[in-house]
Amino acid sequence: MDYTFKTDYNFIFIPVIILISIIISYFYYRNSKLEKLQRSLFTFLRFLSVFFILLLLLSPVLIFIKNMIKEPVNVILIDNSLSLTIENRQDELKQILKNKTGNNFPGGSENLYFLYSGNLNDELKKDDITGFSYSDKNNVRTDLTVTLNSLGDKLQNKNLSSVTIVSDGIINEGGNPLNTAKSLNTTFNYILTADTVQKNDLLIKNIFYDKTVFKESSVPVKVEINSYNYNRSISVNLFEENNLIDTKSINVTNGIISYDLTFNVSSDKEAIKKYRIEIPILEDEITGKNNSEEFFINFTDNKFRVLVLAGGPGPDLSFLTEEIKKIKNFEATYLTQKSSAEFYENTVTDLSVFDSYILVSYPTNISDVSILTRIKENIEKNNSSLIFFAGKNVDYTKLSILENHLPFKTAGKSETEEETSVRSIISTDMNIFKNSALLSSVNNFPNIFRTRTVFSINPSSETFLVSGKNSDPLFIIENSNRNNSAAFLAYGFYKWRLNPKTGNGAEIFNYLVSNSLIAITDKEKKNKFKIETNKPVYSKFENVKFEARIINFDIKGGEYVKVNVTGKDFSNAITLTKSGSNLFTGEMAVNGNGDYDFKGELFSDNTSVQSMNGRFLIAEDNKEFKLTRGDNSILSSLANETGGYNFSNKTSDEIAADLKVLNERSKTEYKSRQSFEFNMNPYYLSFLIFLLCLEWFFRKRNNLP
Q1: Are 394 and 493 in contact (CB under 8 A)?
Q2: How far apart (Å, rounded) are the C-alpha atoms in residues 701 and 42?
Q3: How far apart are the C-alpha atoms of 365 and 181, rounded to whole Å?
Q4: In the chain, which stretches have pLDDT less than 50?
Q5: With helix as H, strand as E and coil as C, how does 174-241 read?
Q6: CA-CA distances (angstroms) from residue 168 to 68, 85, 150, 274?
Q7: How far is CA 135 from the centre of its chain?
Q8: 473 preceded by cis ω (within 30°)?
Q9: I need a labelling partner for 628 at 20 to 30 A (CA). Which of 75, 387, 474, 677 fits?
Q10: Do the Cβ atoms of 263 and 218 come closer than 8 Å?
Q11: Do residues 162 and 134 lie in contact, with contact meaning Cβ atoms separated by under 8 Å?
Q12: Residue 654: its pLDDT value, please?
């Protein structure tokens, strides 16, 4: 231990106060009648008292540095998530803990035991690690990233030597926790508690659907099914509000895991409808809890008035007309150019009533530019959208009137025609075309046509279809605050419906056109705000999370959003917290299983601006059962990247030996700097008082005044 003595003054003052103390003590007892030994003792006591009193004037500090050892801490994280209810896995987990956590586990250091599924649960005592029971409160998705963040916060002042994860390895939320694990700067080990051999199982892997669609339109719902170890025909049922409305059969084969099928749903009225996809449970399945999934679709009653303006009759126009007629929410008016001032249909004088304008091979060299000018004015005034279909005879000079409202600019004009194949690409904006598999069907469609006109695509445009030869954009969308438009920069789409190989050309073309119109002709722009839950199904032990965002309203300050939730024997309301300039968030505990409706209402100046409705479900969240076999991929990655071990096949003694090595390696020796300040220190003052009292006592015993 190192000692250092310092004062606020120069050390030359210490000899001075020693001299002063000696002089005072000497003269105080110089003429005393005490014997020599007694006089010396009294003089010494007086010297000490005076010296320590004078020493206080120098504000002395005694500094000493101690060598300290920070003992290692081993953490054992015990999985307690819903997936542990499969095949009595929790009993197997407890047996593993009993066999592998002997009295010498793990290596004679501080050992902490925690249950986890998401946030770190309460700490367990060692005697309780085989006596705990599964809690429904863990009926949430397993998020090891959140667990490790919680662990870091809880043990930030500890010398973390190792983390041993005892789990089936099923992680279905939060992604790969490797980066979070590395930030803890410790070693990760694992014990896998579930069999990695896949048992018999049928499950709903994913459902792809649009949350908001138009009523009276046929909406595809794509279902991805996984089958393990079956070779038979299975039924897949679609329920609407708990009523069976459709059943499809698929043949599954042992060795092939993934299968897709598509249902179509519709509604003749505006409503938020609950759907359930369900596979009847087979007797030998490992679990039936992953055989169904529920979701909601909001059917809106938004009628769009669309003007289709064509440069002349043609097969593409006929194809487009047929597909638009299938979308009952669109009230389409058609104008097919006959001459500069004439159309085959009746002339429409009021062009301001339309929500969207579709130009098919228009304008041509005989088109009236005044019509384009009026369309331009209406787009700017009413925030209408625009879709352009290219054609061989398009006059791009006249089209330039609408250049600021198109997703491209013309860089070089050419009437030279060529054939091209079409292929889809993955766009960053998958909110428009969520069914990427359906979109990719165009890769097998017949060639279509294009001219060699060169187009310059706007920076904010997204490309969804390109040519097979040079990957030139063929279908683009710009959906921004400034511009809401789409463009098909090729023609001859009519060939798709004549394709005998696929037979779904009309469906794909309808999907492209309808989703484009919905995206850029968004009637939701009339909405001042949007509100939704972050998922359709919650556990009764989870808080329902709401998020509202102001989208088309001038924020004045003081806006707030209230949410009212109602269900069977339940009613509650909350005011969301403002989390950003236009964002509001909040949570509510809803503890009973069942269907619930909510109403969100935006207020400004304490006046209601608008309200919106939604639904959610409180039930068992089956995300924990999407994977039913033990999976050590993430756990193995954590161990390999941090120098840890796989303890799955090791005995208790072997585990203890490995952890002992880790503990020795992680022991930390550090120096602790401490100080002893004499001024006002109770021990120092007590010592000083003791000296004075001792002298007084001896003086009285010797009859000194």
Answers
A1: no
A2: 12
A3: 66
A4: 139, 670
A5: CCCCHHHHHHCCCEEEEEECCCCCCCCEEEEEEEECCCEEECCCCEEEEEEEEEECCCEEEEEEEEEC
A6: 39, 11, 20, 33
A7: 25
A8: no
A9: 75
A10: no
A11: no
A12: 86
Cα–chain center distance at 654? 39
Cα Rg, the chain, nearest whole Å: 40
Question: What is the dihedral sign for C-alpha 283, 284, 289, 295?
Answer: negative
| Burial classification of residue 498, based on how many CB atoms lie within 10 Å of its CB (0-12 exposed, 13-18 middle, 19 or more buried) | exposed
- Tell me how far apart the alpha carbons of residues 57 and 66 are, in angstroms, rounded to a whole number: 28
DSSP 82-150: GGGGGGGHHHHHHHHHHHH--TTTTSSSEEEEEEESSSEEEEEPGGGTTT----GGG-S---HHHHHHH
Backbone angles phi, psi at 315, to 5 degrees: -65, -35
Helix H or strand E segment including 602: strand 594-604
Looking at the chain, the number of H-run helices and the number of E-run strands are 13, 37
Q: How far apart, in whole angstroms, are the C-alpha atoms of residue 7 and residue 387? A: 85
Residue 80's alpha-carbon distances to 170, 213, 636, in angstroms, are 11, 39, 19
Dihedrals phi, psi of 549, to nearest 5 degrees: -135, 125
Residues 6+ apart with CB under 8 A from 156: none
Q: CA dist 212 to 174, 208, 600, Å?
A: 26, 13, 17
What residues have CB less than 8 Å from 593, skipping those under 6 apart? Answer: 540, 618, 619
Q: How far is the C-alpha of 580 from the C-alpha of 455, rounded, in Å?
A: 39
pLDDT at 434: 76
DSSP structure class, residue 38: H
Residue 670: what pLDDT?
47
Q: Tell me whether strands 187-192 and 159-167 are parallel, antiparallel or unpaired.
A: parallel
Cα→Cα distances 28→36, 385, 685, Å = 14, 107, 23
Q: Sheet harboring 537-538: ordered strands across?
A: 537-538, 607-618, 594-604, 560-567, 570-575
- Express each pLDDT in 572-611 by its tens digit: 999 999 998 899 999 999 988 999 999 999 999 999 988 9
pLDDT score, position 218? 86
Cβ contact 108:114 at 8 Å: no
β-pair partners for 278: 237, 292
Task: Dig out the tokens for 526 from the structure.
Answer: 């009339």
Any bridge partners for residue 457, and if so which?
408
Task: Determine the 3-state secondary structure of 463 from DSSP.
Answer: strand
Contact 254, 202 (CB under 8 A): no
Q: CB count, 10 Å around CB of 468? A: 14
pLDDT score recorded for residue 104: 52
Q: How many CB atoms sit inside 10 A of residue 605's CB?
A: 9
- Give me the DSSP letters along 276-340: EEE-PPPTT-S-STTSEEEEEEEEE---EEEEEEESS--HHHHHHHHHHHH-TTEEEEEEEBSSS
